Amino acid sequence: MIELRDITIRAGKFSLENVSLEIPSGHYAVLMGRTGRGKTTLLESICGLRKIAGGRILIHGIDVTNWSPSDREIGYVPQDLALFPTLSVREHLAFALRLRKQSGIQVKHRIDELAALLGISHLLDRGVTHLSGGESQRVALGRALSFRPAVLLLDEPLSALDEATRHEMHSLLRQVQKTSRVTMLHVTHNSAEAEALADRRFVLADGKIHQQAG
Amino acid sequence: MVQSLVTQQLATQQLAKMSSSDERIGDDQVKRLGQPRQRSDVPFFLAMGGLSSCFILLIVLMLAADVMFTSFADFRIALAKPEIQAAFKLTVMSCTVAAIASLLVAVPLGYLLSRYRFPGRWIVDTLVDIPIVLPPLVLGLSLLILFHLPIFGWELERWLRDDVGFGVTYQWPAVILAQFSVSCAFAVRTMRVTFDQIDPRAEDVARTLGCTRGQAFLIIAVPQAARGMVAAVTVAWARALGEFGPILVFAGATRMRTEVLSTTVFLELSVGELNSAVAVSLIMVMMAAIVLLVLRLLGAGPAT
């Protein structure tokens, strides 16, 4: 469960005041809103990369407001993906597991499992600099899912993809959610995407989050 | 009624005029399209190339003059001198130590300056540049004063020599320190620019995956900065090789002890040994070229 209680975020001239949001466990929530309304800022605050000026952030009932990003166990796929240029696809998937000191066999098993789920088994030994948009997206998704986070945050994950790849990714995201039961918060400005994916739809407008029916 | 008719007529006339002039423009465009380009790009390349080659030519001519001035015998004589052999060894060693020490400082300092906005950051940023803008002799003098300034009867150099047993001034450590204080400033600049060009988002994501800031720096940022580190070492090494003023003031020019090749050129010149001075200069040119080449090959390796 993701719960935001009256959080206030200030970044230069931009600010969000007293925003609240609740996403029940295992749900696929889509947050919509026009560009520049603070959707990315909100995600960064949830995963701990941006300090909030007020309010509380709870993950599964635990107050993580003052925790460092490394302790929050939140999977995050930023809009620019931010893949690691010096690591191979396999190393991306193993990254979080090695930090958690998992055994070689466990890591290998998880990599194979993820690669099969995401359809990137043939890319495992490649670097990430020459991957296509859809492939990069899958690697970023795999990296964020690798350590079985309770919560997955996706920032406009499909905006840079062509129509066909986007549809492919829709079904992949739904499948990921079904198999991992992860609570997802997916930010987009595309209403068709929200229609296709969401259990819950939220809109960020006028500095407030409204839940939409449907 | 009459008035509106007149205006209508006028408008029609105007339209007719415009359309006929449009046709003329169309004709002109077609005509111009058929002609070859009248203005060439040759003057651009001549001007740019001409100005650029002034500098290139100057360097090439200087080196050529050096080569023509010396003979192979001069090299043999110069290299046979034990003083010059000692200077060569000290130069290679001191430059290498100064360059590595510069990198060790430049990587963290460049990273901090690039990634964090902390109070007093602009002061640090300015201080780093001081060795670059300071006249070399002044830098040497400042080092000398730092080590010999009595503070309530306590003196850094005396303490180091008597209590630690490790004298600096007028000894080989002074050579390295003098080289380090300048070359480090250049290495910091290089590393700062390097980290500025690396997207910090990857380090952010690494932190969400479980990295501490330290791990994100070591596992994600440093490997991406490999080429910048090679460039920083190169710049630092080359700077250290060319260092002369501060070494002369702070380390002296004692033959066999604090003499590096740049001092050798000065010492040989001062006793009228022009041939030997030029031979040593050419040795330095070759050393610089070899270091540049080796490091460039290293840098161009896996990163491209």
Description:
The complex is a heterodimer of chains A (214) and B (304). Chain A has 214 residues and is α/β, with parallel strands linked by helices. Chain A is built from 6 helices and 10 strands, in the order E-E-E-H-E-E-E-H-H-H-E-H-E-H-E-E. In chain A, the strands form 2 sheets. A 6-stranded mixed β-sheet of chain A has the order 6-7-8-3-9-10, sandwiched between helices. In chain A, strands 2-1-4-5 form a 4-stranded antiparallel β-sheet, with helices on one face. The longest helix of chain A is centred in the last third of the chain and has 18 residues, at 163-180. The two termini of chain A are 20 Å apart. Chain B has 304 residues and is an all-alpha fold. Chain B has a single domain, classed as MetI-like (MetI-like fold, Orthogonal Bundle). In chain B, helix 2 (42-69) crosses helix 14. The radius of gyration of chain B is 32 Å and the shape is extended. At the A-B interface, strand 6 and helix 2 of A face helix 9 and helix 10 of B.
